[in-house]
Amino acid sequence: MKFYINQTIVIHTIRIAGISNSSVFQIGSSGQIQPLSNLYNSGGFTEPAPLPAEEPVVPPVSVPLRPPT
């Protein structure tokens, strides 16, 4: 069985908080979503990134609270 769907979709604002390699973002209808994976070296890097020298020191965070009333 085949369906033919005509749609008009108007999007004024869309916000995407995060997207990863396995995310699927879909607007409208899709009969079948084919998986696709591409790996690009857009920076032209030829070797791995250097390891960090040491763990960064993160000071403890304290938030003053108002006394209960």
Automatic annotation (TrEMBL):
Residues 50-69 are annotated as: Disordered. This is Spore germination protein PB. It comes from Aureibacillus halotolerans.
